[in-house]
Amino acid sequence: MEWRFSALLTRRNVCSGIQKDVDSFHAAAARCMMEGRFPIL
């Protein structure tokens, strides 16, 4: 039971970490587009 709970917490941490990376990537891409540079995705 305990290992399942810790696995759930770990999975949530991984997902939030990925979401943070996605958000920062979108911010960087938007900044490049505003400057007229279109990064190849």
Keywords:
41 residues, mainly alpha, 1 helix
Number of distinct helices: 1
**Structural class label:** mainly alpha
Helices and strands, in N-to-C order?
H
- Output the radius of gyration: 16 Å
Beta-strand content bin: under 5%
Roughly how much helix do the residues carry, as a percent range? over 70%
- Separation of termini? 42 Å
- Low-confidence runs (pLDDT<50, min 5 residues)? none
Number of strands: 0
Largest sheet, strands/sense/barrel: none
Average pLDDT, rounded to a whole number, is 73
Shape: rod-shaped
Question: Brief overview, please?
Answer:
With about 40 residues, the chain is an all-alpha fold. The protein contains one helix and no strands.
Walk me through what this model shows.
It contains one helix and no strands. It has one helix spanning 2-34. Helices cover 80% and strands 0% of the residues. The mean pLDDT is 73. It is mainly α and 41 residues long.
Which helices and strands occur, and which strands form pairs?
Elements: H1 2-34
